[in-house]
Amino acid sequence: MCGIVGYVGPSPSLAVLVAGLTRLEYRGYDSAGVAVLGPDGLGVAKKAGKLGALVDLLDHSPLADGTTGIAHTRWATHGAPTDENAHPHLADSGKLALIHNGIIENYLELKHEVEALGAVCLSETDSEVAAHLVAHHYSESGNLTDALQKTVNRLDGAFTLLVTHQDHPGVVVGARRNSPLVVGVGDGENFLASDVAAFVEHTKTALSIDQDQIVTITPDGVTVQSFSGEPVTPTPFTVDWDASAAEKGGWSSFMAKEISEQPEAVENTLRGRIHPDGSVDLGDVNTLIAEHDTKRVVFLACGTAAYAAMIGAYAVEAWAKIPATVELSHEFRYREPYLDGHTLVVSVSQSGETMDTLMAVKYAIEKQATTVSVCNTQGATIARESAGVLYTHAGPEVAVASTKAFTSQIAAIYLLALGLAQKTGTLSVAERQEIAADLLQAPTHMATMLQSDERIQEMAHWMADTRSVLYLGRHVGYPIALEGALKLKELAYIHAEGFAAGELKHGPIALIEPGQIVFVVVPSPREAPTLHNKVVSNIQEIRARGARVIAIAEKGDAAVLPFADEVIAMPPASSWVAPLLAVIPLHYFGMELASAKGLDIDQPRNLAKSVTVE
Ligand code: M6R
Predict the structure, then answer these.
(1) Measured from the CB, is residue 386 less than 6 Å from ligand 1?
(2) In the prediction, which pLDDT does 29 show?
(3) pTM over 0.85
(4) What are the structural domains of the chain?
């Protein structure tokens, strides 16, 4: 969950590192720190709180700058977010600094070992133990890369580590297992980071560091080896977005910007992938589908990505007539699920680094399933581990609350479902063309929904003191209800639940009391008249018990009007496009309610953008 960055080159490193941390702060924001190799040795500054607290510290107590350094923004696992537990951690009498992202599971055993060797641990973290272990091995050889190699071979768990030592100016060594690490290759300067966002303003040339590899950077070189010491040639790639894409650009928050980017994100995800006959071009994934005898599709995902997968699973079953289920990655891998060579496992992850999903994908690979990843981040671990990848082209998503990634995941999975239907022949050409034409219309309809913000803002202000909000939906509206509720919980810290509307009478209706706010996602009366009638009945049932109903319904849906306190209108669209529209006001609502309560929109408490620990 933490963000890490390392730099070697001609520029004063403090500015480069702090700018890098600014772009990585979404990964964790409970403390931050930096170590710079200056003329008088290694200088360290670290501070609990958001990055601003570190910047203030550096303003008041400047560090002697240098051209080699590492920096870290933390999401606490072991030890509270305090100054002492913030990274970097020092060892070798303050000459060696280390930063870590992940969890070292056997740290207690290693702690006893390094303490027996004379190390004094000043923090409660697992990470500091690794610093002392590197220092111990360094004392044997005087070689930092060797010392890190010996250390990582002793560690259990997930980690990306960066180390610098004052006896080696111009050198930063990194290693990774189950946590992300990429190299930015510059001209006379090189970078290491959790994510390309940290260095994209300096270079778009990047190298992927694979599982269990160690990388050493100097201003003029990058060398990579495996944990066993074998030389490795890393895979280069070019970052396909500009630094400006990860900037707020005048918006009040990244979330506001990213909500507004949803039509474009969906358009970019669909672009060039749909042929006039309704067939789809999914690159290698087409071949993979063609060669695989798919008898079942299992989606793996967490949080918002799982809701996108639920909608996708409905489409796979409806169009390709292949049984499809969605599994929360963290539940899946610990319940001995049955998988075989006929199972297509589709992981859905914006970051491509979510540990639970990564581990579930690895489990699926072990069980001979064929894996496809739906991912938004180039070169991410899950994408690389999977047999095929279908990238969403949403651009960098910085706000912790996922928005444009969600809608582009739905679009990408629809393409996958069409690809599967192409193979099974379960849709006629005319049916495929109709679905494709509907999807291509989606961005235009989504742009209309962006206009709902003002009304939602007013509603959020009068609801700022509310203690509970319920969300109801049916069919593809059900995952949208879940998504609306998740957004309210994570952003506004308000109790919220999403329900399948049909489930109401099986228990949840007992929650309805006068004044209870309920958002209802209403199916189209034209497209899904039966479901529409049932949801209108649900609305009447809750209204009769005093609920305040906010309906998200198709424009002109007269049946809803008499029973809803508020109606947010959607342009007429197909049932498959409707969730892409209905979710936009719910994204706004979470954001506006958080804003009405004066909360931090982009960095909600206790959360981090990529959950890279289990
Ligand atoms: O990077 P991923 O898509 O794998 O992340 C999955 C979830 O952690 C993520 O969607 C989370 O639920 C968001 N904060 C929701 O807004």
Answers:
(1) no
(2) 85
(3) yes
(4) 3-245 (3.60.20.10), 254-427 (3.40.50.10490), 451-596 (3.40.50.10490)
